[in-house]
Design goal:
Two copies of one chain form a homodimer. By secondary structure, chain A is α/β, with parallel strands linked by helices. Helices cover 45% and strands 15% of the residues of chain A. Chain A is built from ten helices and eight strands. A four-stranded parallel beta sheet of chain A has the order 2-1-3-4, sandwiched between helices. In chain A, β3, α3 and β4 form a beta-alpha-beta unit. The interface between A and B is large, with 74 and 74 residues.
Chain lengths: 267, 267
């Protein structure tokens, strides 16, 4: 059992994210993680030090401390004999200063703060848009959409749209292929003008069956044959209409979202 | 104009996030950013090298390259005379290996991959939950909620709930204080049993007025006096009922979300 502290003067989202990425490289070690945001004063840092020292005594083992703290007086408090400390700013800022021939501003990290009001409104608008244009609820606003996801029910369209809206301010609508579209083997008429915005999701039959069974056990909807027929028909519609699509079976929401952004060059 | 490349063998979300955090420390430099995920083969890396060299020639200036690539053969391709290269794995993995007295697994980064199926389902369930329990649509499922956000209309409850669900798998419901609650100066009855799950959002009058005007210009809803009265009443209800709350006026969705998680110790 190894204690790990993520400490930041702001949200700590980035700190935790890179720390976790590094620790997944040591799958045999069990880590006990503590996430401590908003440490922007020496007194707050002192409180955290008490906790770190407590864990050191409790487990008789050096904790790992990942920090991203701009103020060196606060940051240096975590240089301890009884812990291993990595600070992400300290590690890279001097190198970047030398490469860019400029001093860092030393302002507290704002990468997850509200830096740009317009960007903030854009994001709120995108969230509203994705909510109102979820699951084919309406098809009138596709002119404003950045992307329209298509695919069978429960393939993962809604989570992906919300991820794109919430994290990137992308206006993502989604439309489910319903039985009629699938039987007729045709792209719904009102999607045709927005062909360039369409992106498809598909999935392995077993996995869709599993997901739908979770939702409606023993239904026709969840039946493995229904899943098979729907997926085959949906893939056929996407193929003949030249709609790019990805198989999401082994992909996380993040991976699907990045693949979509890459494909339609939204970024 | 400085070109910056974010290159990763996986989604690159973390790479971009820490790179952006570092670059915000140099606000006087204009960066042109290129985001290049899924570089998991030498041939893909070679294609990227062509692009980097092109930008170097075009601007006659050394690009900055941030990578997180586990495979050293691919990673080392970005050690170039004409660019400044930081690799996040290379920078820290050797230190961690020595501290942990273990070799890194060298598996491709999975921090944004689908590592744990249960966690994935939990997240999908949380997204469904937050959608179905948005804006007081129903009050029957609060037993299952991890948190219930309260506050006046347009204070930011929905974006925060979706952020918590999409990124952390937290079941976040939200209930808007309506005119009647505010006039009666009382916490709605059905919220009382879930008092321990309640968390309030509040906002400055001018900012709410601005946000509501954006939505419904010249309405009673957006009127500055309406905003003032509603905020005052909402804050009063939260105060007398001992509901923790934050003022979101200068906070991003990330900052609000982290503050909520910290408060209710969801993590």
């Amino acid at each position: 059992m190894k204690c790990v502290f993520y400490i930041s003067d702001r949200t700590g989202i980035t700190t935790e994210s890179i720390g976790n990425a590094l620790l997944t490289q040591f799958p045999n070690i069990e880590f006990k993680k503590f996430f401590i945001p908003f440490i922007d004063s020496e007194s707050r840092a002192d409180n955290v030090l008490v906790k770190i020292y407590g864990k050191y005594l409790q487990y008789n083992d050096r904790p790992i401390i990942f920090t991203s703290i701009m103020n060196p007086d606060i940051r240096n408090k975590f240089q301890l004999d009884y812990a291993f400390h990595i600070d992400f700013f300290e590690a890279f800022i001097p190198m970047l200063e030398s490469e860019l021939k400029q001093s860092a501003s030393k302002a507290v990290g704002m990468s997850h703060g509200m830096t740009d009001e317009n960007k903030y409104y854009k994001r709120i608008d995108a969230i509203d848009f994705s909510l109102y244009n979820d699951d084919g609820a309406t098809v009138k606003n596709y002119e404003q959409a950045d992307v329209i996801l298509v695919g069978v029910s429960r393939v993962g369209k809604t989570p992906t749209c919300l991820y794109l809206a919430v994290n990137y301010g992308i206006k993502a609508a989604n439309f489910p292929f319903a039985e009629l579209d699938l039987v007729n083997d045709k792209l719904p008429k009102f999607l045709v003008p927005y062909h360039h915005k369409l992106f498809g999701l598909t999935i392995e039959v077993d996995r869709l069956h599993h997901i739908r069974t979770n939702r409606l056990p023993n239904s026709k909807y969840a039946d493995i044959n229904t899943c098979k027929i729907e997926i085959k028909a949906a893939e056929h519609i996407m193929t003949i209409n030249n709609i790019p699509f990805v198989n999401v079976s082994k992909k996380s929401i993040e991976e699907i979202s990045v693949a979509i952004m890459q494909q339609i060059k939204l970024k």
